[in-house]
Structures are given as C-alpha cells and as structure tokens.
Amino acid sequence: DKVKVWPQYAESFMTAYPKAASSKFTVMFTGNIGDAQGLEALPKLALRLKEKGHDDCEFILVGDGRYKSQLEATIKALNVEDMFTFKGRQAPQKIPKLLSQADLAFLSFKDTPLFHQTIPAKLQTYLACGKPILALASGETKRIIDEAQAGLCVPPGDYDAALSALIQLKTDTKEMLERHAKASLTYAKTHFDKTHLMDQFDAMVKEVDDV
Predict the structure, then answer these.
(1) What share of the chain is helix, strand, coil (3-state, %, to 5)?
(2) Do strands 84-88 and 104-108 pair parallel, antiparallel, or not at all (unpaired)?
C-alpha cells in the first residue's frame, strides 16, 4: 500500500499522422537493435512469409545497435534482403512521420523474467502514434496490447504463432487495422498522456507532503 506505479509517458511530439501510401505491407521497428530485443524473429518471419507467397511484406528498421551487423548477416544468409530496409538512427522527433509509413509497428523481447515486468518505451510511442502492433512479448507488454485491443501479441520465440498473427493482420480488412490504430491512440491518451501523468505525479508528491 506504500507503492504507486507511475509509468513513463509518451512525449508530446509523439502523435498520429495519416497512413502514407505504399505498394507493400510495411512492418516497422524503431529503437535499439540489441540482443535483448529478440530481432532474430524478423528474418525468420520474412523467410516463412516468402515461402507462403507473402513477399510483398517489407520490414523497416529505424535505429542502430550492437546486434545490427549480426542481424544483417542473418538476413543475407536467409536470402531475404529484398524484404528489409534499414533507416539508421533518427532523431526522436522524426519517429511519428516515419511510423506513418507503417501498416504495423513491431516489438519483441527475449523470453526472460525481467522483460515480463518491463514496458518498453517504444510501446508508448507506438500507441501514441496510433499504430496497430504486432508483438512477441509477455507480461505487462502483452497485458497492455490485449487490454488496449491495439493489435496481436504472441509469446516470445513462438514463430509459428507470430507468422499466423502477421498473416492475419496483413490480410485483415483496412477497417480492422484502423480499429486497432484508433484503439492504440485512445489507450495512449487515457494511460500515457504526459500532462495527465505529470498532474498525477504532482498529486502523489502533495499526498506525501500532507502526511
């Protein structure tokens, strides 16, 4: 009863833009390209998509990190280079416009107990930018995506489930993806709005001062 949870807010410049036109179904990841993110899932998914005739799917990665060179090597080894674009590190203020190119925003984690309790900052970003989400995650991340009805979340490392979820989202109607997008935005405004959370923080500090 002495503990209160105060989540990280989405920056005010994280906002939704109209979906940019594209001839491909675009899945975008933004953030650190590290080992903990479990991004080895992407080339494996790309290969399976290609085998099933869904090679009109494009994966765009925005960011940098120590795992990038290994990820690029895996992409080349699986012969799915034509399905990937790397945008490199970008200023945070550019992320909303970049995400407007995406049909889906992607996040994943390694399957470790720590990440069951972690809410990655990119989740708030994706929600605030009004994006449907595909995630390989568990714990709090899964709870939020499911509660928000913002997309689909499958267990980390379950590539069969991830492939099914991706194909489902890819073949869903435009209206269904728009429904996920609106749900993301609504959840962000309700739970991760900066002004609301700063007011909440002020109230918590006042509560302590009054004790």
Answers:
(1) 50, 15, 35
(2) unpaired
Helix H or strand E segment including 154: strand 151-154
Q: Which residues of 17-46 are buried (b: 16+ CB within 10 A; e: fewer)?
A: eebeeeeebbbbbbbbbbebbbbbbbbebb
- For 87-121, the pLDDT digits (tens) are 999 999 999 999 999 999 999 988 777 777 788 88
Adjacency order of strands within the sheet including 57-62: 84-88, 57-62, 25-30, 104-108, 133-136, 151-154
* Residue 6 CA to its chain's centroid (Å): 21
Per-residue pLDDT of 128-151, as tens digits, reads 999 999 999 999 999 999 999 999
Helices 139-148/121-128 angle, 10° precision: 10
Q: Residue 211 has what pLDDT?
A: 65
Percent share of the chain, pLDDT over 90? 74
What integer is the mean pLDDT of 61-74?
96
- For residue range 80-95, list pLDDT tens digits in order: 999 999 999 999 999 9
Q: Which amino acid is at 34?
A: G
CA pair distance 118, 142, nearest whole angstrom: 10
Cβ contact 28:147 at 8 Å: no
In whole angstroms, what is the distance from residue 108 CA to residue 120 CA? 10
Strand pairing category for 104-108 and 133-136: parallel
Q: Rounded CA gap, 146 and 123, in Å?
A: 13
> Tokens 């590190």 map to which residue?
89
